[in-house]
Amino acid sequence: MSLFLTFVVCMVVCCNVLHAQTYNFTAVDKILEDSLAVLGGTGPDDAGGVCLLIHKDGKLIYDRSIALPGKNMSKTRLLPIASASKWVSGAVITALLDRNILSLDHTLSQYFPSVSEEKRGITLRQLFTFTAGFRSNLGPITPCVEDITSTITLAECVDSVLSGKLTTLPGSTLNYGSEGMHVAGRMAEIAFNNMLPSGNCWDSVFTETIARNLEWTRTSWDVRGLYNTDNPRIDGGVLSTAEEYLKLLVMILNRGVYNGRRVIGAEWIDTMLADQTQGARISYTPYLGMEALFPGVSSTRYGIGLWRERVDPVTDTLLEGASQGRFGYSPWIDFQRGYCAVLALKSNSVTSVYPSYMKLKQAIRDVLDATTSVSFADDSAEWRTIGTYDVLGRAVDNNATGALFVVEQCKTSIRCRTMYR
What we know:
Layout: H1 3-20, H2 26-34, H3 36-40, E1 49-56, E2 59-67, E3 79-80, H4 85-98, H5 108-111, H6 124-127, H7 143-146, H8 154-162, E4 173-175, H9 179-192, H10 200-211, E5 239-240, H11 242-253, E6 257-258, E7 261-262, H12 266-273, E8 281-284, E9 301-302, E10 307-311, E11 318-322, E12 330-334, E13 339-344, H13 350-368, E14 373-374, E15 384-389, E16 395-396, E17 403-410, E18 413-420
Parallel strand pairs: 4-8, 14-18
Antiparallel strand pairs: 1-2, 1-13, 3-5, 6-7, 9-10, 10-11, 11-12, 12-13, 15-16, 15-17, 17-18
């Protein structure tokens, strides 16, 4: 066998061993169990349980749901996901960018000709990154944006938003709030131009761009028999299940492809994940209150629908993105390790959930980092045999004869030795 072919077979064998490995999630289990009272919530409207799904290498590697006594939780339970909706809406906007229906540089004046002078130059990018100058969620905002009992349309509510005053100069300040995304949703409706009434139009855009492509049947702003609105809260009104939401993350992790179907172009996924705040000064974000516990998080910036929680300090490449909701519902993607996860829950305070969320993510990193490298050298360490394979890469008994490849492990590395017996 040639040296090159030997190398190729060894690599295939080693990679198959890594791919097929089982993970020790004991530490993750313990955090979930120890944090259940917090994650499940104690309020009468809280879910009373938590579900964690982790997807890597094309499959679920962790799937667990636990609940407080007398409560139930599963990956198919429909929950209000609050600000985790932003990633859903961000995907809708990104799909429209991909189709050249919208541009991040489109301005309010192009869609609302009578808008006041101070707002005319506000861009879609600014609307979707909290930098447009509208009011933050720290104080009162236009009532119809958050009123789930509202009977007006998205268009009518946006008219109210646009009649208000700005609090900062457009583009100057990142001020976390709901109004900008609401306006962006109406821009999407106008650009899509399918002649449906406002509200219904957004539902149609969502279905055509994202929901149908991800094979979603339950995730929506409107849930038959439960909730229906013509004024969908673009930044926080989605109901979803952990099982369905995970499909969105898998699509993004796969650079726009889900189940073999191209949903969003790869270059537009890059746009979604990039910092779109253009250097705006950070005034208010949910991360500011966590700085004492987790130094550095207060500088977290925004893409299109997601927070850029960890970035490479040299290249600014996104390592981990997330879109945590007010009730603790927490989807994220770790691009560095190639996995995505949904922590599904409804608790009374995201602030109380946040420490457990961060501990869970660190525990998962530790698990996935336990075996990550392939080595063909270093005879000084103690290696143990973990598999024997024939020249076709098929597992065989350790006592097999002929040309063999023996895979050995030492701590966090594996290596492949060739032998004949």
